[in-house]
Amino acid sequence: VVSTQSTGPKPTTAQKKLELAKRTQGLLSQNVANQRLILSKLESCKISSEKRTLLETLKKLQESHETIKASLACLDKSERKRKAPPPAKPAASTTLGASTNLDLRPKEIIVKNCNNAEELQEHFSKFGACTVIPSGVGVIIGFDKRRDAEMAYVKREDC
């Protein structure tokens, strides 16, 4: 008799990999516990033939531990590849006017050899909202909009 009942949605590849990673991690934990047990038996063992057998078993456990770790690393690597960041977006537009791209060009003007911040604030505020910041090289005028900074630069006057 064939059953037509559904057992639920099929697990996705990511879910399968996650389950496999959990199982692998459990195997690693069990392997470490077994190695500890064998080491404690080795310490108390006085018969050389038993020691040899325990050492061989320990060596096999260490080899399997390395194999399990390597498979877990492969799972992690494939998961990281799958979650790789999307490719970089094209550079921002360099044209003035309407654009759908973010304009990351500078909105600041540096005025050298002039330290009268109040006078500069008064002059450059004609072109748009701005802040004046004194610095070691002169005064930095930061505008809210790139277009305002360009107009101020084009129509600049000597301080």
Features:
159 residues, 3 strands, 4 helices, single chain, three-stranded antiparallel β-sheet, elongated, mainly alpha
What is shown here, in short?
With 159 residues, the protein is mostly helical. Helix content is 53%, strand content 11%.
Overview of this protein structure:
- The chain is mainly α and 159 residues long.
- It contains 4 helices and 3 strands, in the order ααβαββα.
- The chain has helices spanning 13-44, 48-82, 117-124, 146-154; strands spanning 108-112, 130-135, 138-143.
- A 3-stranded antiparallel beta sheet has the order 1-3-2.
- Strand 2 (130-135) and strand 3 (138-143) form a beta hairpin.
- It is elongated, with a radius of gyration of 35 Å.
- The model has no long low-confidence stretch (mean pLDDT 77).
